[in-house]
Write a sequence for this structure.
């Protein structure tokens, strides 16, 4: 369907063909770039960065969220910081991170983690606070101690919200990463591929790169989160599907 | 033998509009293996009294003893069943919910599985051991909650209107099942309800509380053989007596 | 239990105080050159300078103008499209696949291509905001129309309402909470897109451009100052505009309840 619309526009010739390649050319380029390993290499580099950065952000975010949910004191102090930091686009920090950490992988990974941590923290906090008091009471009545309550009641009880946070965090991480690769001159990566292709007006390469970016984003959602949710919160009936 | 002794207990909530006296001078003794019902209008302090015995609250006056020891907190000698179906952990199957108390006690896997099975069988839910709470009806969830409260073998079972949110037919069924379970396990039961017929059907003794502040106004021994017939004259006579103590139509 | 206002304010003050103090100590310790970690008063001075010569307002004006244009166009296109999708199956069957393929692509991935197509400057930034904002608007409006309570439509029909009237008096207000939620999401995405887009595709004006431009001269004080402005503006629009919009309409009708915090 997309292809159809696209091709119609191309045929109408409203834009110069050099800047607006036909579907056939994009598909051909896609095939060529996959065949000679260029796209997979760039995609792998980007995914590796995403994995490390997101893992960092998830660990920090979940920890912060739990601490905020468990301690009034931490909540009072951390919540204002998190809620002011949350709406600032992560990318706005990119130049600053470049100045602080130089070019290359380090600022990119750190920025991805930084951007992902906010939604994870906010949602984890909500989840921990939303754990039903009756679950805690039941656990106490059955002789559970502080640690056991935390491990066996608070953590699973907060899981639906934590999942939502991780999902939002990953989406955000992905958006930031693609853009930040254009700014930090990483050696390899999809963002970098697109940005570099601009120099040569290689719009077919750019579109092929964009297609991969869309596919990866869709894949992360379908292949990582949906199965994970089906196994946990959907199975437990805590989330309607 | 006296199992639970509630002696001159008073309780005051620190409400937003000044202190609220929920209970005053409540004295009740419960014998071992006795089935005792607390009835009273909504807001007369039934839940408060149950929470005191459970150890979730501590009395502002008087004291509560179980087997001669003063209650200072919750303990594995008491099992609790609440009204809210949501008391089950949604992330655990029926079986694993029932295992929870045993797990806390550090029981081995084999013992846990075997015991949980036995109590699920007792409430007639062995077939649903692997089901998650959301896959069970309200009545089934409450049965799991009963099995869960019994599984770690407490001497006392505390129940706060466990069947109040069920439809009438299911409730009748659950009451019959509870009497059977009680006859088999011989627990001491403290059961809260605002339903007089339910109290007469279940209890050896019915304690009537009056509201604001909650005080004991009557102590009625139900001397009917079981299984009881809710349509018999004697049954209706008991109901009439208790409603009279409640002052009005109950 | 409501968190008391005093506690919240004190908590916020402590939080920002501690962060500012920590930053100050770190900046003055000289472990990094001051050009990289300017102290708080340098940041404040940079902001004051930008306010004094009026450049800050121009930058803010450009950024807000771009997001307003992009968001407005996206609303003009996305809301009607979402409505049509909700009312007519063929439209839904044609548009939905398009949307679900395009919407997971981060808007900023298009920047280089948009630069080629539209050149550097306003058009590219506005197009970027448009792209970022369009999909949340379409999807939310569509969901909203689909989830309008069938009973309301039946009731209106039985009271003699024609399809035009049903649409205007039942479907539109019924879908409004979702449209507003969509606008909210669209703004959040558009805000990221406009700042990112300005970094890469703008010339001379815009908050994103300031930050990026300052990097060349290591003007970290200007960068941090602009960052603060971006954060405050984003938060301000979210809290003032959208919260007020919600209070005025759907909250008053009791269609959604305010969520705490
Ligand atoms: N957390 C509380 N704070 C203040 N007052 C309370 C609280 N809980 C209960 N009360 C008051 O104590 C009285 C008894 O409540 P409760 O024990 O829940 O009654 P019952 O279970 O019989 O309906 C009521 O009048 C109620 O207003
Ligand atoms: Mg009660």
């Amino acid at each position: 369907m997309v292809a159809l619309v696209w091709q119609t526009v191309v045929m109408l010739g409203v834009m110069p063909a050099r800047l607006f390649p036909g579907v056939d050319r994009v598909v051909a380029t896609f095939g060529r770039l996959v065949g000679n390993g260029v796209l997979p290499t760039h995609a792998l580099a980007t995914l590796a960065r995403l994995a490390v950065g997101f893992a960092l952000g998830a660990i920090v975010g979940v920890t912060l969220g739990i601490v905020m949910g468990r301690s009034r004191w931490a909540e009072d102090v951390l919540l204002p910081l998190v809620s002011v930091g949350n709406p600032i686009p992560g990318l706005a920090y990119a130049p600053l991170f470049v100045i602080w950490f130089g070019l290359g992988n380090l600022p990119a990974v750190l920025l991805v983690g930084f951007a992902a941590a906010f939604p994870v923290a906010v949602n984890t906090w909500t989840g921990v606070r939303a754990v039903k008091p009756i679950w805690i009471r039941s656990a106490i009545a059955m002789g559970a101690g502080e640690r056991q309550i935390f491990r066996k009641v608070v953590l699973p009880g907060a899981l639906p919200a934590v999942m939502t946070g991780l999902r939002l965090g990953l989406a955000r991480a992905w958006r930031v990463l693609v853009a930040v690769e254009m700014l930090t001159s990483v050696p390899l990566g999809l963002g970098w591929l697109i940005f570099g292709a601009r120099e040569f007006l290689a719009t077919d390469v750019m579109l092929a790169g964009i297609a991969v970016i869309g596919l990866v984003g869709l894949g992360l959602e379908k292949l990582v989160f949906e199965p994970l949710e089906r196994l946990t919160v959907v199975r437990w009936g805590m989330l309607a599907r | 033998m006296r199992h639970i002794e509630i002696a001159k207990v008073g309780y005051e909530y620190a409400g937003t509009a000044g202190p609220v006296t929920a209970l005053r001078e409540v004295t009740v003794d419960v014998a071992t293996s006795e089935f005792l019902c607390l009835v009273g209008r909504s807001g007369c302090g039934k839940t408060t009294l149950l929470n005191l015995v459970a150890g979730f609250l501590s009395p502002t006056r008087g004291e509560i003893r179980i087997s001669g020891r003063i209650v200072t907190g919750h303990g594995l000698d008491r099992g609790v069943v609440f009204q809210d179906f949501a008391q089950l952990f949604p992330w655990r199957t029926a079986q694993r919910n029932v295992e929870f108390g045993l797990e806390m006690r550090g029981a081995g896997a084999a013992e846990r599985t075997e015991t949980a099975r036995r109590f699920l069988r007792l409430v007639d839910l062995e077939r649903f051991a692997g089901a998650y709470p959301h896959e069970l009806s309200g009545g089934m969830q409450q049965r799991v909650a009963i099995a869960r409260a019994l599984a770690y073998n407490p001497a006392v079972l505390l129940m706060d209107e466990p069947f109040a949110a069920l439809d009438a037919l299911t409730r009748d069924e659950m009451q019959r099942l509870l009497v059977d379970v009680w006859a088999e396990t011989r627990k001491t039961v403290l059961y809260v309800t605002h339903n007089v017929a339910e109290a007469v059907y279940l209890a050896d003794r019915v304690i009537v509380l009056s509201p604001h502040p909650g005080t004991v106004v009557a102590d009625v021994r139900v001397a009917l053989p079981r299984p009881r017939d809710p349509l018999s004259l004697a049954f209706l006579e008991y109901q009439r007596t208790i409603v009279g103590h409640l002052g009005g139509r109950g | 239990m409501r968190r008391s206002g005093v506690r919240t304010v004190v908590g916020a003050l402590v939080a920002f105080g501690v962060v500012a103090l920590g930053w100050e100590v770190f900046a003055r310790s000289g472990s990094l050159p001051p050009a990289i970690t300017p102290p708080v008063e340098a940041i404040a001075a940079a902001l004051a300078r930008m306010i004094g010569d009026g450049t800050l307002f121009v930058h803010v004006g450009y950024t807000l103008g771009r997001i307003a244009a992009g968001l407005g166009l996206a609303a003009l296109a996305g809301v009607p499209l979402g409505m049509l999708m909700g009312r007519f199956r063929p439209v839904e069957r044609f548009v939905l696949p398009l949307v679900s393929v395009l919407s997971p692509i981060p808007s900023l991935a298009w920047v280089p291509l948009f630069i080629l197509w539209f050149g550097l400057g306003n058009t590219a930034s506005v197009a970027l905001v448009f792209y970022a904002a369009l999909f949340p608007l379409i999807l939310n409006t569509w969901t909203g129309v689909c989830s309008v309570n069938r009973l309301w439509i039946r009731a209106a029909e039985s009271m003699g309402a024609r399809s035009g009237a049903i649409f205007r008096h039942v479907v539109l207000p019924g879908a409004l909470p979702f449209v507003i939620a969509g606008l909210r999401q669209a703004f959040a995405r558009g805000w990221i897109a406009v700042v990112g887009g300005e970094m890469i595709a703008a010339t001379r004006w815009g908050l994103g451009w300031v930050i990026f431009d300052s990097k060349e001269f290591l003007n970290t004080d200007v960068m941090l100052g602009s960052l603060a402005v971006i954060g405050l503006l984003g938060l301000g629009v979210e809290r003032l505009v959208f919260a007020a919009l919600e209070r005025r309409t759907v909250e008053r009708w009791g269609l959604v309840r305010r969520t705490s915090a």
Observations:
- Residues 87 and 108 of chain A are 19 Å apart (CA to CA).
